[in-house]
Design brief:
Elements: E1 4-8, E2 21-29, E3 32-37, E4 40-46, E5 52-57, H1 60-67, E6 72-80, E7 87-93, E8 100-105, H2 109-114, H3 133-136, H4 141-151
Antiparallel strand pairs: 1-8, 2-3, 2-6, 3-4, 4-5, 6-7, 7-8
């Protein structure tokens, strides 16, 4: 069982965050994705629950060949929240611009169930297609905007 809850926010302004790490992810199929994390190239094998079962470093030329076969690309900046090590923030760029997802990881179900979100966090999106890059990668632009508008209050 995944012990993570996900929330949406409108802006990262006034939130104490680390410097960003840029992720460039490409989905080859449901069980294979590659990513560039700054200047590190990785291949990740995912199981049916979207959990990484194998991660290996690859060379840039292998990365470039595989990305040509991808059905989707996701670019985002990832930050850690300085006041709580359990919390990370993902700010999406390009096709998914406008989505800023907050992820909170827990060590137990009890901790997860008792968690009270930070005042700056918006609606919970844990069970929406916006919660995971794999699901996000399958949305059309129109589907993405419709989903995003459900959770971003004007």
């Amino acid at each position: 069982m995944r012990l993570t809850r996900r929330f949406i926010i409108k802006s990262i302004d006034n939130i104490k965050l680390t410097s960003p790490i840029k992720y460039e992810r490409y989905y080859i199929n449901d069980n294979l994705r590659i990513q560039r994390k700054n200047n590190i190239f990785e291949k990740e094998i995912l199981n049916e629950e979207n959990i990484i079962v194998e991660k290996v470093k690859i060379l840039e030329n292998e990365f470039n060949k595989l990305k040509e076969t991808a059905y989707s690309k996701i670019i985002r900046n990832s930050y850690l929240y300085l006041d709580d090590a359990r919390i990370s923030v993902k700010k999406y760029l390009g096709k998914y611009e406008g989505l800023i997802r907050v992820e909170v990881k827990f060590n137990s179900i009890e901790e997860m169930n008792n968690y009270r979100k930070e005042s700056w966090m918006g609606m919970e999106i844990t069970n929406s297609p916006l919660a995971f890059d794999k699901d996000l990668s399958k949305l059309t632009e129109q589907e993405f905007l419709l989903e995003l508008n459900k959770y971003i209050r004007k």
